[in-house]
Amino acid sequence: MSIIFKIVSISNDGHCLFLHPTQFKLINETTGTTTISFGLKEMEVTYQQSDMLRENEIGVTNTIIEYLQFPLGVDYEIAIHNGNITIGPFIGLLIAKSHAKLKRKLKKQHRIIEQYPLLNGVIIAFSWEDMDHKTETILGYLYNSSTKEWEKGTFPFPTVIVKEMALSKNRIKFLKNLYGSRFFNSNSINKWKMYQYLSDNKELLPHLPKTVLYKRPKDVLNGLKRFGTVYVKPIYGLKGIGIMKMVAEPSRYSIQYRFKQKNKKMYLSTENELLNYVKNHLKKNKYIIQEQIDSQLQKGHIIDFRIFLVKNQTGQWEDVGMIARKGSKGSIVSNLSNGGRTNNVIKLMAETFHISEDQVLSIQEAMSGIAIKAAEEIDKYENIYRHGVDIAIDRHQHISLIELNHRYPAFKNSFPKDAVTKIYYSKLSYAKYLAGFPLDKEK
Fold first, then answer.
1. Which of 96, 163, 281, 370 measures 20 to 30 Å from 230, CA to CA?
2. Gene3D superfamilies under this entry (predicted)?
């Protein structure tokens, strides 16, 4: 529903909910009982029609207000499912470990202020320290849309928690057990775990470069013997940092990497030199070894593509756009932080493959389908609301899935403003969906 409601206090000691005749019809009953929920709290109440209320008012007795801890003066929406009523949305932002850090971080929550008119309901910010797990209450801060200030108060546990800071594995496990999929943005996935998840999908497997976890120096040597060229990547790496390209040449081995924004290259003459180098520079279980994708489509330049996916208020993955990245000359990575540049996808692909715009659009559609399928596969393990999906295409136009980046997926200066806005807004739009208020597709 899109109507905004105010909760009106009714001086009555009973457990009764009063609805305007227009809203009363939605329950499809003339009288009786229902369950009303707010956050993780719920209460069985009677309900009845009241002509004394305005259409955008819900009358609630003091007993209900005290038990469910409704903040008054808030713009609410209501959702009715099988006669049961949810008042909200009620979204919690877990943004700090301690209350002291929470107060400092509140000043940086500018996007909440921008987005609130699209959300309504209750948004609270809190720290782990503020959660009382025995009473399931939180001492946090509620965003007041009238004053545009954060106001301190005590609230029940919200319907949805969005994790905005690092948490220990035990704390993540606790919140997952309590909230299930309604605790999201819950964890990061390293490159090796990502490969394991995706390779379980038979449809994705042909699009995944062969990858192994580094455990001993011979793993690199075996990869070079098998593929000739491999990329060695830190499993927790970002922005192309720490990546090495290793090549088995006829009488030596070459190793390329980036250092202080410059391309570097070194040569090793024997297998023993290679094994000693790897032993001294790589840590067990901290790197992956990956076959090379021939993405050097223009002489001296790596070219790949990033697709931006977000979960929206319908709970579905949405492709909000794509950019092409062209690495600096001689670079082994295309990352913008390492000298890469963004390019228009249609123009670059048409020039590179000598194909029409319609053919480019067909390839784009296939890339988008693979990206969404990969995101859906990750959904089986973690509830993540956004991905920057890196994809490469070789000379034969075969599509390869490099990785899904969910920590820093967007380049705000390289994308249309409306798409960047959609990426930024997706977190709370998806939270609203999880809270029981999906987008009305017909509207």
1. 370
2. ATP-grasp fold, B domain
